[in-house]
Amino acid sequence: xxxxxxxxxxxxxxxxxxxxxxxxxxxxxxxxxxxxxxxxxxxxxxxxxxxxxxxxxxxxxxxxxxxxxxxxxxxxxxxxxxxxxxxxxxxxxxxxxxxxxxxxxxxxxxxxxxxxxxxxxxxxxxxxxxxxxxxxxxxxxxxxxxxxxxxxxxxxxxxxxxxxxxxxxxxxxxxxxxxxxxxxxxxxxxxx
Length: 192
Ligand SMILES: Nc1nc2c(c(=O)[nH]1)N(C=O)[C@@H](CNc1ccc(C(=O)N[C@@H](CCC(=O)O)C(=O)O)cc1)CN2
Ligand SMILES: Nc1ncnc2c1ncn2[C@@H]1O[C@H](COP(=O)(O)OP(=O)(O)OP(=O)(O)O)[C@@H](O)[C@H]1O
Description:
binds adenosine-5'-triphosphate, binds the ligand Nc1nc2c(c(=O)[nH]1)N(C=O)[C@@H](CNc1ccc(C(=O)N[C@@H](CCC(=O)O)C(=O)O)cc1)CN2, 31% helix, globular
């Protein structure tokens, strides 16, 4: 099978969006960053309260952290799951538990014996979100490979990012791109 070449517009947008996110976060005092993540937790509280199994992520670099929102959800007894890769895998599965072990890209994930679950709500990391909920990710297609089936199974997909990551443009969507139901940043939740 032919390997598709990277989409040139997406590649450019990804580079710019990563730089903008980095610039924004590098100017944030730790205290402000934590206050914004606490705002996000408050904003997401009703959404998480009505879910049963929540797919989330262990943040890296300048990504917005859902950790404060997740602490609250755990207190409510929700099942919390993270993307987990097995050795050499291009496709992750959501496994319930604490992210206690480093996976590829040194992202923390549950151990490979943790139960595989089907979340009814997924908090999705992103590099940028465009009009209509088109998501730009890390460019490896990891979430693309998983989200279609999860959406089909009934999951609500909420992309998380700082406000600068919400681009007021149409990001070109390819066949495998799965539109998000909503985008949330510390200040608002936008439904598509
Ligand atoms: N927190 C988090 N977990 C995630 C993802 C993600 O985007 N964020 N993924 C999304 O698919 C999957 C892992 N796939 C990844 C694929 C590529 C890179 C990557 O290229 N990372 C850059 C650093 C980018 C940054 O700091 O934001 C690198 O290694 O140089 C990271 C994760 C599943 N878990
Ligand atoms: N369902 C799929 N099955 C196999 N390969 C896929 C699938 N979806 C995407 N890919 C591959 O992943 C590559 C990257 O896709 P894309 O640029 O849309 O990634 P992304 O959405 O930015 O990244 P990610 O999902 O990792 O956060 C594509 O070139 C494609 O080859």
